[in-house]
Predict the structure.
Amino acid sequence: MTAFLLFLLMAQSGPTPPGWTLDVRHDHMFGACEGQLLISEDSIRYETSNDDHARDWNYPEVESFEIVSASEIRIHTYESDGILKLWGDRAFAFRLNDDSLDGDVYAYLEARSLRPIRTRIIPGNTSDTDSSSGTFAAAADQVVQEFPVRHDHLFGGCQGIIDVTENRIIYVTDNPNDSRIWRLADVESFASTNEFDLRISTREETFHFDLKIPLNRDTYQHIWNKVYEPQIQTYRGSIQ
């Protein structure tokens, strides 16, 4: 699983990349428009000749990013989507002309987004990944435990591998919709009724796993510390 653990993270002492300019297609309810998605240090901007759909978001104005595949990204916003969609929050879906959404883009957005990024792309999940290239440093999260699992769906399920690392939980599966990276800092709650059971809940979703080998006590404690310990404040510690 070494390849699954090579995250292209921002190097603390490395150069800051200028960002990306991506040729994209933005689908509407009826029709579509084409333009460029510009991802920069301070904002993400969609430039198009269709003025009604051109946008310029600062990162705090983005509710969340969702990387659906190497050729699709969705930007969830705080805009109302109108009466036809019951005034829900508006999401902009962009399809790239090529598979340009890789670990670099994920790491760039992760470093700037104020909220968790929902991604189905696992950086390093290809045999030809060159972890020494690009403007990001290759950094491997230390593995706490790795185990094969079954992810329960409403009907049926899929199988894959979970890596619990120092700062993340990584689920890798052949099911293209289910691979995930969760930062432990973004996990709202987790539960384990026994050593063969694990439930992970975030703001957006809950995944339940049947573990094929036992969850180590140390792994459980590690997840607990990362998820819950930062929220614990003692009475004495709260006195200024």
User: Anything to note?
Assistant: The longest helix spans residues 217-228. The CA atoms of residues 21 and 38 lie 5 Å apart.
